[in-house]
Design a protein that fits this description.
Largest sheet: none
Strand content: under 5%
Number of strands: 0
Structural class: mainly alpha
Distance between the termini: 35 Å
Radius of gyration: 20 Å
Number of helices: 7
Length: 159
Amino acid sequence: WMFAEWIAHGKPSVLGIASGAVAGLVAITPASGFVGPMGALLLGAIAGVVCFIAAVKLKRALGYDDSLDVFGVHAVGGIVGALLTGVFAVTMDGLKPELSMASQVWIQTKGVMFTVAYTAIASFIILKVLDVVMGLRVTEEQETQGLDISLHDERGYNL
């Protein structure tokens, strides 16, 4: 992430470096126990660049609201890690597994597709229920006044 940010913006940021570290950890999680040290390093480097692109370019292109880059770092990082597990997987003795790389990547892809479908459907249902019960957005007046005052009756800043 840091190097991608350096190339794209001319300098790295501390937030970018932290986001890249999180992206690497998210990506290695599905692969942990299945990849060796070099595979883990490559997986983390690839995930950092892909997550940077998702958090910066994809978010802007699709116009979705994700101020904390949760989708770009966690969803995309998890998908990258799950798919690349099939590429970098080794056995306990450091040898390639019995399945071919293509077979393992296909298994990983099916798992990712099932997970994306399940979470999309579950999230849709949960959001619909919440919208009926309490609403998903504050009023325009509350937003203009500020949520610290309108919802919590506190000032976030004394300016």
